[in-house]
Specification:
The complex is a heterodimer of chains A (about 90) and B (about 425).
Chain A lengths: L2 E4 L3 E4 L4 E5 L13 H9 L7 E7 L7 E7 L5 E6 L5
Antiparallel strand pairs in A: 1-2, 3-4, 4-5, 5-6
Chain B lengths: L5 H8 L18 E7 L3 H14 L4 E4 L15 E2 L6 H15 L1 H5 L10 E5 L2 H16 L5 E4 H7 L15 E5 L3 E2 L2 H14 L3 E3 L4 E7 L2 E7 L2 E10 L5 H7 L6 E11 L9 E3 L5 E5 L5 E11 L7 H14 L8 E12 L5 E4 L5 E5 L9 H14 L13 H4 L16
Parallel strand pairs in B: 1-2, 1-11, 2-8, 4-13, 11-18
Antiparallel strand pairs in B: 3-7, 4-6, 5-6, 9-10, 10-11, 12-15, 12-16, 13-14, 14-15, 17-18
Helix pairs in contact in B: 2-7, 2-10, 3-10
Classes of the chains: A mainly beta (about 90), B alpha/beta (about 425).
Chain lengths: ~90, ~425
């Protein structure tokens, strides 16, 4: 069982959260010209490291806020969590 | 190579089975190979086997960072099927099913192919309609498909929950009678033995640390056992694909996720088929030892850990108990996890790359085991001829740029995140 510290609610069990993947993905800016390649990359390419991974989680059965988590993908250890507006 | 037969069995009985040849020899790397296959799992070994057999290239090494068959080929739930709706998948996997039917003879190794039939249960009228549609698509592609009603299913899987109070009542199901199971380890061992007998070197505990690429062409592979020169490299490393691709300056539409499976204590014959739950993600079959072999959802977050957490297992088994209530009385014997190379449309990638001589075989998601023979066969063709085989021509990497996705479930990007 993962125990995840929601930056708003504190430490809760994994059951309350859902996963949102790589947090470094940036949507191309609205209203600007986007090349097909940049758009494809935004949709399909994600960081997939073995080790520290910065990712999004959603406290779906709690405060319903999205937040960032720094987690090790080879041990599942969680180092740090932060609000979306904060740096990890 | 010693042929396995009733006669060799009798002959070796006289020496108390102490004089059997080893099935394959462990090798140390030579300085140079024509082709290096990375990953001694099902797909890697099958690729090496078909390169040697079909294309007569035998100066090949299969290198493996762990031990032969220690990855997903030894961690799956052994299910074989080709019950796909889309043409590219249906035709590809159906050719694979034909190869499974003859694989034990082909490899002179009993892979225990058991065409016991796979049944997808439907729990609503709408789901029955979808299954009729998929069944018809399958039959148009020459794949066997049978729709079953509730009464027929009652006779076939009497222990399923057919009560009036079932939360997800069983309306019927779609069956592929030729679907079934095979002994997964035997597939890896059988391919390894035959490939090795034709001259393929199998090198275990040899981790790839880098690649030598010059002028856009592969020159060699750097490993924990030294540098090896080669003209061509095939990647068959499933969940570790992104890590090797990174060393080649490639970023792939793949995430690595842990998928758990489990077996119960062995019980008497209880389930004759492979059955999948239609109101969630759960499937089970009974092994020859009597264990219930079960699996379902991914844990749902990126992982390289080869082990998962209990909440997912509990969720999956809750579905199992909804389908077969008496499963709740069984004790669990083992659970384990494997790392899936989840592609962004749920379909595999078999292709050349931007580097001359580097070939990619990945993105198998939950379903790599059943594809082992056909994946190896088409990938061997691609490596040997430097061109994509017609059967795998829709599994190219550039489909993520051209928009020709093969999104079997119609769920869009990241089909596995619910």
């Amino acid at each position: 069982m993962l125990e995840i510290k929601c930056p708003h609610c504190g430490l809760r069990s994994q059951n309350e959260f859902s996963y949102g993947g790589d947090s470094n993905t940036k949507r191309p800016e609205l209203g600007k010209e986007v090349s097909d390649k940049d758009w494809d990359n935004f949709i399909y390419l994600r960081d997939n490291p073995r080790g520290k991974h910065s990712e999004l989680w959603h406290h779906v059965a709690g405060c319903r806020q999205w937040f960032k988590v720094l987690r090790d993908t080879s041990t599942h250890e969680i180092f740090k969590t932060a609000k979306l507006t904060e740096e990890l | 190579m010693q042929k396995y037969s009733i006669f060799s069995l009798i002959k070796n009985a006289f020496s108390n089975h102490k004089d059997w040849e080893v099935a394959w020899k462990d090798s140390e790397p030579k300085k140079e190979y024509d082709i290096i296959i990375i990953g001694a799992g099902g797909h890697g070994l099958a690729t090496a086997y078909y390169l040697a057999k079909e294309h007569k290239i035998t100066n090949i090494a299969v290198i493996e960072k762990g031990w032969l068959g220690g990855g997903n080929v030894g961690r799956n739930t052994t299910i074989l099927r080709s019950n796909y709706m889309f043409d590219p998948n249906g035709l590809f996997y159906e050719q694979g099913m034909k190869m499974w039917e003859n694989l034990s003879q082909e490899l002179n190794y009993n892979v225990m192919y058991s065409p016991r039939g796979i049944i997808n249960l439907a729990h609503s009228d709408a789901q029955m309609n979808i299954f009729y549609r998929r069944g018809n698509s399958m039959r148009l592609n020459g794949i066997d498909a049978v729709m079953l009603g509730r009464d027929e299913l009652k006779k076939m899987i009497p222990f399923a929950d057919f009560s009036e109070s079932a939360r997800f009542p069983i309306f019927g199901g779609l069956m592929q009678p030729r679907g079934g199971t095979a002994r997964h380890d035997a597939v890896a061992w059988g391919y390894a033995r035959q490939a090795n007998s034709m001259g393929v070197d199998i090198i275990q505990h040899c981790e790839v640390t880098g690649f030598d690429v010059q002028n856009g062409k592969i020159e060699g592979v750097r490993t924990s056992k030294g540098n090896i020169k080669t003209k061509k490299v095939g990647l068959c490393v499933a969940g570790n694909t992104s890590l090797l691709a990174e060393k080649l300056n490639m970023k792939l539409p793949i995430e690595s996720h842990v998928l758990q499976a489990c077996v119960s204590e062995p019980v008497k014959p209880f389930l004759d088929h492979v059955v999948t739950f239609g109101a969630g993600h759960f499937y089970c079959s009974q092994s020859d030892k009597g264990e219930m072999v079960m699996g379902g959802d991914l844990d749902g977050y990126n992982s390289y850990a080869q082990r998962g957490n209990l909440p997912t297992l509990q969720h999956v088994l809750t579905e199992g108990v909804a389908m077969f209530p008496n499963l709740s009385r069984l004790k669990m014997l083992r659970t384990w996890g494997g790392i899936m190379d989840m592609s962004m449309d749920g379909s595999p990638i078999i292709d050349k790359t931007h580097i001359d001589g580097v070939y990619l075989n990945c993105g198998w998601c939950y379903g790599g085991f059943k594809a082992t023979p056909i994946s190896g066969w088409t990938f061997a063709y691609t490596i040997a001829k430097d061109e994509v085989h017609e059967l795998s021509s829709k599994y190219r990497l550039n489909r993520f740029n051209t928009g020709h996705l093969i999104d079997e479930k119609g769920l869009g990007t990241k089909t596995w995140i619910g």
